[in-house]
Write a structure and sequence with these properties.
The protein is an alpha+beta fold and 178 residues long. It folds into two domains: 101 residues, N-terminal domain of the delta subunit of the F1F0-ATP synthase (Peroxidase, domain 1, Orthogonal Bundle); 71 residues, no CATH class. Helices cover 62% and strands 14% of the residues. It is built from eight helices and four strands; from the N terminus they run H-H-H-H-H-H-E-H-E-E-E-H. The chain has a four-stranded mixed sheet. Strand 3 and strand 4 form a beta hairpin. Helix 1 packs antiparallel against helix 2 and helix 1 packs across helix 6.
């Protein structure tokens, strides 16, 4: 997977730079979402893997499946990917593009897993606190995991803050073993 991400990175950067210069970040983000969903369909994967189709035919099929949601410049991007045999990288390109867009907009998504449903005011306070700490606009997504017993676990990118009772008990158990 790391290799595919490496292959996708220059395409994602190029798409991001174009979209930023053209003031179309949101439009290209949405087009990449649609394209990634199409690229992940089994029938499309089979059609793209068929060796009997030329790059132009593969791009044409892909664009037809996506429908009217792609502008001319994005269709050219799809054609470039097809001619370089990189259409399968679109889901990776979408993820990398989203990361670049979030950095540009200074936003970050945070996943909060708690032992119970958190009240809205607590989520807002948490978002404000994380926003100040991370110097970014924070979008909080919450989920419930009863096995935590209490507290919460906060995930964002590669950062994890474990404030759960289960996590604290595990640390205590480890400390007692050593």
């Amino acid at each position: 997977m790391a290799e595919l991400t490496t292959l996708a990175r220059p395409y994602a950067k190029a798409a991001f730079e174009y979209a930023k210069a053209a003031s179309k970040l949101q439009q290209w983000s949405e087009a990449l979402e649609v394209s990634a969903a199409v690229a992940e369909q089994d029938q499309v994967k089979k059609a793209l893997a068929a060796s009997g189709l030329s790059a132009e035919q593969k791009a044409s099929v892909f664009v037809q499946v996506c429908g009217e949601q792609l502008d001319a410049n994005f269709k050219n991007f799809i054609q470039t990917l097809a001619s370089n045999k990189r259409l399968a990288l679109i889901p990776y390109i979408k993820d990398l593009f989203a990361n670049l867009k979030a950095q540009q907009e200074k936003t970050i998504d945070v996943e909060v897993t708690a032992a119970y449903e958190l009240p809205v005011d607590l989520i807002n306070k948490l978002a404000q606190s994380l926003s100040a700490k991370l110097d970014r606009q924070v979008n909080v997504n919450g989920s419930v995991d009863k096995s935590l017993l209490g507290g919460a676990i906060i995930h964002t990118g590669d950062m994890v803050i474990d404030g759960s009772v289960r996590g604290r008990l595990a640390k205590l158990a480890e400390a007692l073993k050593s």
